[in-house]
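I am still getting used to backbone structure tokens and would like to learn alongside you. Label the sequence line and the structure token line clearly, so we can match residues to local backbone shapes. Go ahead whenever you are ready, and we will take it from there:
>
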Amino acid sequence: MNKKAVAMISGGLDSTLAAKIMLEQGIELVGVYLSAPWGCCDKTKAMKVARQLNIPFRIVKLTQEYIQVIRSPKYGYGSSMNPCVDCRIYMFDKAKELMEETHASFLVTGEVLGQRPMSQMRHSMNVIERDAGLIRLVVRPLSAKALPVTLPEEKGIIDRGGLYGITGRSRKEQMELALRYGVVDYPNPAGGCLLTDQEFGNRVRDLFEHQEKVDIEDMELLRFGRHFRIGPSAKLIVGRNEEENATLEQYLAPGRALFEPDFSGPSVLLLGMPNDELKALALGLIAHYTKPEKRPADPKVIFRVGVSREGNLPIAPPEESLPLEGRMEEAQLQRMRV
């Protein structure tokens, strides 16, 4: 066993402190950020932390197999569509692959015992280590003294006396450590993984119920806009601002259509093949979410159908222009809203 470890870096305070504690003990670190389709943690902040720590850094994208973990978790869901234990096992598997590639002996995380109700309880931690094949090889510097001795500690690679015994949800002790280690620029604690969010979880559930084959792009789209389920194979996504309108345009592809107003209003992406009913619904949504003062006297909406694209090839020119229809009733919106 050597003094080299892979450190999971999220960009938050806990993982930053864990890495700092290990560097203080002379451990050589390789940082890793595990990138989910919906960007649970801030990748740019994780990159910034790695630069400040002056450690090598890898970004590992979670692939198609990750979707199956979410869809059929062995250990079930939490309050929403969050399979926290299965997700953590999958992430540890990916970190373990990097350990093998970089010849690192153990894994370092910023986990705090009792901080999260599913994945950071004592039993869950044991299950995750076992299923990932990392028994006694996961060092959690912030909570180590409240947990069994790991192999790196047992073999004298790590001094247990320099580790901590923090438990629970309070961040008071971490903030005190931040002052000690000179960590001043760190984000406030966020809500955590988007899968724990009820609205996002409902969108995931709806997607799995209506679509047999789900890919990374399908999951990415759940982050943007207002979602309306029209039928088993059709959904409308309404942009909430100019940035989202531009984002929806990037997802135009075969089997999809885009409705773009020629005025300051929301774009609508149709997932499914367009027909007269779906066109009318899309126009109704644009009318509903357009401020009256932004609507011109003769409003038009450009209609584009999906085209085969490679890379960033330009999208096909407008296929037709549609007259804008009236606002939709709130009750109708609520029935369709995902």
Q: What stands out?
A: The CA atoms of residues 77 and 187 lie 27 Å apart. The chain has two domains: 4-181, 224-336.
